[in-house]
Protein: diguanylate cyclase
Organism: Lysobacter panacisoli
Amino acid sequence: MGKPSRRWWQAAVLAALGMLVATSVSAQRFDVARLDGDPLPLQVLSGELRNDFASVEGQSVHETSRRPRWWRLTAREAISPADAPHLILRFPYLNHVEVWRPGEVMPLRRGLVGDDADPGFSTRALVVPLPQGLATGESIYLRVHALTPTPMYVDVEPLAQVHREDLSHVALRTFVLGTLAVLAILAIGFWIGIGERAYAYLFLTLAAQAFYLASVGGEVRMVPWLADLIGADPRVGRMFGLLGVLASNSFVALYLNLPERHPRLMRALHGCNAALLLLLLATVGSAANVLGVLASAVFLASAVATFVASIAGALQRQREAYFMVLSWTPMLVLAVLRMGELLGGWRNPEWMEYAFPIGLAMGGLALTIGLTDHMHQLRRDRDHASHMATYDVLTGALTRSAITERLDALVDAAQRGRRPLSVVFFDIDRFKRINDEFGHRVGDQTLRIVALRTRNRLRTYDLFGRYGGDEVLVVLPDTQLREALCVAENLRAAVNCRPLSIDNRLFNATLSLGVAELHHGETVEKLLERADAALYASKETGRDRVTGYTASRLRTTAAAPVANTANAQNASTIF
């Protein structure tokens, strides 16, 4: 079993490496060269500075300086005009480019936002038509105004392919931004609905990520005034990114309960948040590229701290941590790859430009599912605690507080509707002796059996609650005193009809019961007081009997019991 499985893993790894190599290595159509400085266009186009251009490896324009810089793309082979070729600069983000085609004096200006944007194409790339094609050795000159220090991949595509790629790009970006927007709306809805603070942090995280992606990816050009603001100032998108990381760190701390579970990691996140706040303030005053690199470094540190906290929580079997591991593992890998590219360590393949936003969307989805699961777990815990507070663990009866609360509501309804209501108080005769002779375990079993036998004689809407010790309160809605006496007699008979058998011991158990009917205008306290008095009357007259409290003796504080049935041994009496 192990060898085939190992071969499958090896094949998967080799396939992934093959895809990586195949994606990152494409036919190089141009020799790319860069010129330091910003001379006059006439000097460059005339060929006067031909020898001053320095060759650059690869097939991308990677400009890290904020000052305009000249680039030259020299065709390695002829490009035929037959298929309507177009020069493609992929993933330009906020960069603006002036393009001089062969033989032209005036440039074409291209950018994703602002006056240079071409709405005929998607935000995937800056697109420049080459209606005459290119001959071998012909050059295209670019003057690059870089606001984003990321590489723009250079290629030539026929017009039909440009449109196909644009459709795919629009579909993918719509999915990513739509997912983030929907999740953000759900998060704020849950926050408003249930008041859970974690949803507020999740909403801020998702909303900031969506605005960041739309800002740097060019989708903000659908809102002209916002496009003018962002196209002219890269600080806006960077600030959204910083706010997203801040909100994410706050969410993680709350979601994983880091202050209590992992205080050291909490301190690390506090340090990251302090650095993010400083970067946020610095970004307000400066758009320097170094701030973007520092922001990426702090994001990477936050991702590492979050990932370590998630692994630690998972090792402790913390349910929430599993969702964090699922969310942050790909994000950590993508952050490391992007940081390495910004620092000049390597060039990432083009699909990385799609992998990062997809990772954000999928991470947000995983966090939303995890937080929803967390809320469900809290609700289950709350329901369990509510059940424990409502029902007695030993007997399954309502607790004293639960049955008292429900009795209050039933008494109010009975008084308003002028409907009858009766209560029965009973306890087990000589229960202390059972505990003393046989032990508390037998006493607990006795309570459980008595509760089972008596509860089975009641209607589904009658209430059965343990009032204290071995004392039980039964509430009988829509029941007059005479009917309640019959119910009480059934309860008494259910217990003394046959002996109890517990731990190979056989012994008899009996009940003493007191019954009272609610009078008009009477309080709950007074009703229970009369039922309790009837119970004690049953005790005083010999136990194993039912006593009722009549209306005619309601105001009498002491009265002698009077026989109510013909049963000589187990008489029901009325006060």
Summary: The first strand starts at residue 30 and ends at 35. The chain has three domains: 27-163, 165-374, 400-574. The two ends are 82 Å apart (CA to CA).
